[in-house]
Amino acid sequence: QICNQHNAEAPNLEQVFHKMAQTEPNLDHDVLWFLLPSYWAKMVVALISFLCFANSYDGDFVFDDSEAIINNKDLRAETPLGDLWHHDFWGSKLSSNTSHKSYRPLTVLTFRINYLFAGGFYPVGFHVINIILHCTISVLMVDVFSILLGGLQFSNKGRRLNLAPKTSLLAALLFAVHPVHTECVAGIVGRADLLCALFFLLSFLGYCKAFRENKDGHNFSIFWVLVSVILGAVAMLCKEQGITILGLNAVFDALVINKLNVLELIQKLLHKDKSLENAGLLRKGLLFRITLLMSGGASILYIRWRIMGTGPPAFTEVDNPASFADSLFVRAINYNYYYSLNAWLLLCPWWLCFDWSMGCIPLIKSVSDWRIIALAALWFCLIGLIGQALCSEDSHKRRILTLGLGFLIIPFLPASNLFFRVGFVIAERVIYLPSIGYCILFTYGFSLLSKQAKKKKILAVAVFGILLINVMRCALRSSQWRSEEQLFRSALSVCPLNAKVHYNVGKNLADKGNQSAAIKYYREAVRLNPKYVHAMNNLGNILKERNELQEAEELLSLAVQIQPDFAAAWMNLGIVQNSLRRFEEAEQSYWTAIKHRKKYPDCYYNLGRLYADLNRHIDALNAWRNATVLKPEHSLAWNNMIILLDNTGNLAQAEAVGREALGLIPNDHSLMFSLANVLGKSQKYKESEALFLKAIKANPNAASYHGNLAVLYHRWGNLDLAKKHYEVSLKLDPVAPGTKENYNLLRRKLEQLQKKGG
């Protein structure tokens, strides 16, 4: 549908565009830069953006990837697709009090498609898609910057003109190689930002198409305005920032299509001037289009609010300490300091970190803090730019500066803490979209300097040097994102006060078996943040394994005191108390853990072990049965049930449980071994032998498997095979209990048989 809204006093849109082409100053005129045809410019941008991040293609799943992808049940085929629309980004129900309320179903859907096509959790496919998305976005930026820097103009045939081919190429290159984008591209979870940016740009370009000339000579197409609104909604379903494109489309419409002078309009409003129509407010259907955009945005936000169902997410003080400050002054000062740090990351993206929380940036609590200078510098620059954007007599300068500031500030608003508390201090991923505004302002500044400079080559070489440095920085940072070890260690020099950095380095070392080094980093994490319960829990676990039970108990007791609903710490405390033979306290700790986490199979398993130690066999079997109900693949719980029933002489029941377990976990060799023992005692030798052999095939170096098979053959009367497996068992484990005695008995028996035979 085409909307025909001519104004008697307004010139025809086609005449406006041709007049613009004649009178608008050309930003490229004084710039010494590469002039390439549109196709080649896009190819260059695509190639360079690919080179920046190509070395991340074979990286691992790192940091948040574990929770958003590996542990997210929404990626698996057995989860109904409909659940994606009721779950958050991490796979939790939106209605849950623990949900982060990050509603990004389309991003999760792409992860699910990745998982299905790869046939499992293989990170290469996930990384390749992220790299392709960034290259595509960078290519689209050539068109977007040509409009933002050169204006929206069309030829007589309705083809959009690129009046700033050099500066739009430079701006697109600046965007493509900005190191702050590494988290979005090399970190798989960053796909939310990439998909959001893709549809964000498509929405903007779709809105621009609404003003393309057509044969009927109408002003604009309602169809393309509505398409733009729909694409904005799609962007928001990828990440929350996407909704801001509707506001930017309105700003673009007012400044570029209607050439609105904001200062003049404010003055007319203050003086109640009735000639607002002449000021451009009603020309070319501006109010109608803004009404469409606002109505679409309001509808999208209402639907999202209805889906979320509950209030905002509950974050903790360590996530965003400034937002928990009692003083409004302290909150305001620190929020502004965070803004200045985000601006610095755009200007000088050298110090990059995967996480900026937990003491990485200490709070400013007094005006005597020297960091106040950063706030002053930020607002000095912003006020200067805003003043020029509003008051400059050069309409071209007003338009570019306002668009640059708009693209810098508006997409950042959801992360600004102004409307709601966010769960981070600084997040490099959230400045992916605001960097568009930075690139506009940088490029415009470069064009102004080029106009004044006598030695334009030196200036061009300097900018080329910045691009080259950024490419190298991207490649280096991408390599750091390839593994958790490199990523976490890279943060130690950037945020040495960040307890989470030390915690993650320690966890990575512990996962690799280096407990001594892990203890050092866990202790430092607790020192930096004495309320860091997860660090206390992990440190307590390691100390428990090293039999340093007293300190382990102290740490775990402190953790549950700080966070009484910390189920994992309660369970680990129970394990320590059990080891200290304080059985009543251990039982109470286990039940407290289950109270706070109803579906906790590991806790039921440990509770069963406690009951087994106390000879409360029925309670132990019930606890292990609960563990297997909650987690049918819980091999240890199944095994303990079989062994307990076997040891208490309940062979028929042990056999039934063993068969049930193998039906659920058919390839578990430990279950085969346990059931084979039961069958052997029940004189079902043939079936027992088959299970022993299958278990040995799966795990040929288990001495006990060979030893118990030898016992079976010994009972069965197959003495040669018994001798063979006794010898294998002793070779694998020369001190295996009972094996040597049984082997000696067999040898004596064989010697007696030989004597009788002789």
Automatic annotation (TrEMBL):
Gene: Tmtc4
Organism name: Phaetusa simplex
One Pfam family per UniProt: TPR_19
Pathway(s) per entry: Protein modification; protein glycosylation
One GO BP: endoplasmic reticulum unfolded protein response
Name of this protein: dolichyl-phosphate-mannose--protein mannosyltransferase
Family: Belongs to the TMTC family.
Lineage: Eukaryota, Metazoa, Chordata, Craniata, Vertebrata
Location of this chain's protein in the cell: Endoplasmic reticulum; Membrane
TPR repeats (start-end): 499-532, 533-566, 601-634, 703-736
Enzyme class: transferase
Lineage: superkingdom: Eukaryota
GO molecular function: dolichyl-phosphate-mannose-protein mannosyltransferase activity
Residues passing through the membrane, by range: 31-53, 131-151, 163-182, 188-208, 220-237, 286-305, 337-358, 370-388, 400-420, 429-446, 458-476
Every DUF1736 domain range: 311-383
InterPro entries in UniProt: O-mannosyl-transferase_TMTC, TMTC_DUF1736, TPR-like_helical_dom_sf, TPR_rpt
EC number(s) stated in the UniProt entry for this protein: 2.4.1.109
Gene Ontology CC terms, in alphabetical order: endoplasmic reticulum; membrane
Keywords: Endoplasmic reticulum, Membrane, Repeat, TPR repeat, Transferase, Transmembrane, Transmembrane helix
